Amino acid sequence: MQLKIFVDCHVFDGSFQGTTTYLKGMYLEMIKDKSLDYFFAANDIEKLKSIFGEQEKVHYLQYSSHNKFHQLLIDIPKLIRENSIDFAHFQYIVPPIKNCKYINTIHDVLFLDYPEYFPKSYQIKNKYLFKWSAKKSDINLTVSEFSRQKIEEYFDIQDILITPNAVDPVYYKPFNKVVCKEKVKEIYNLDHYWIYISRWEPRKNHDTLLKVFVENQFYKEFSLVFIGDKSIENKAYQEYYQILSEEIKSKILTLNKVDFEQLLLLLRGADLSVYPSYAEGFGIPPLESIAAGIPTACSNTTAMHDFSFLNGNHFNPSDQADMAKIIRKTLAEPFDSSKIDQLKTQYNWKLSAEVLLEAIKSSS
Question: Which of 7, 145, 173, 336 is a good FRET partner for 153, with 20 to 30 A between their CA atoms?
Answer without folding.
Answer: 7
